[in-house]
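Is nicotinamide-adenine-dinucleotide placement plausible here? Inputs below.
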Amino acid sequence: MSAKIIDGKAVAARVRERVKAEVAEMDTKPGLATILVGDDPASHVYVRNKRSACAEVGIESIHHELDASVPESELADLINQLGQDDSVSGILLQLPVPGHIDSDAMIELIPPDKDVDGLTTMNAGRLVQGRAGLVSCTPAGVMELLDSEGVDLRGAEAVIVGRSQLVGRPLASLLLARDATVTMCHSRTKDLAEVCSRADVLIAAVGRAKLVTAEMVGDGAVVIDVGINRTDDGLVGDVDFDAVAEKAAAITPVPGGVGPMTIAMLLVNTVKASHLQQDDRGAAVG
Ligand code: NAD
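Reply from A.M.:
I modeled the complex. Tokens:
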């Protein structure tokens, strides 16, 4: 079998068009506040890309750059101020922040309905309980990719490798909500190959180049590779792409698979956040 390559760029472009059309219809334009602390070059690139994606679809962006030595209290004040600002629909604190800042504590200051990264305890809890909320962008992007392929998740064996707060755990909740039978693997899993080989849908989110080999993948599986690893051969995922593509029914490439979905879903979340706040204000007025 030679797998169908799932084109994340094309799916992300469709999502962005959808968001653009929706924003055009909105009376109050959504606004995304980005906060960048310090001068990590990769973070600067990520934030720049997020802001230009906002501009493309008509989302206002409000950017704050703070010095690496900024006191935590100053960052906290800024987040609180943005939390109360009606022109701000979503707040994104670019991670990582410098070591003297408690990133978990800063994230908890973001009002849950402005938490476009879905990282607050409130949104993580809502997700686990199967309640509506803002969902972390990369897992939401994985679900969008599976849906774009028409993958039937009901009763499917879904195996996730990696149990991070950012990717693995939220994905497990999203797949459960869609009636998949979910197994989570991690660094202590005893027979990773055996568990992975049972998967109808296999998702790798570890950060180890070519961890998932062809022997670990069952014939006809759908394979989603979240990993991003910089190697001498350039950017690669967690999946041994060429060999696995011979067995899988469909597979995401790296780059060009999950990566483009993350920003697209941030735009979706910003619009969703804007609606949540409009509803709140409506309720307060009514
Ligand atoms: P993380 O380091 O927080 O978590 C890695 C997980 O992998 C842990 O749960 C750990 O238990 C598990 N693990 C480690 N070694 C393992 C092994 N040998 N076998 C099985 N499991 C093992 O990482 P993260 O933030 O979830 O990111 C994972 C990867 O996804 C990274 O490469 C990251 O760059 C990438 N990522 C990509 C995007 C995107 O937009 N495409 C977004 C977020 C993360």
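Short version: The longest strand covers residues 31-37.
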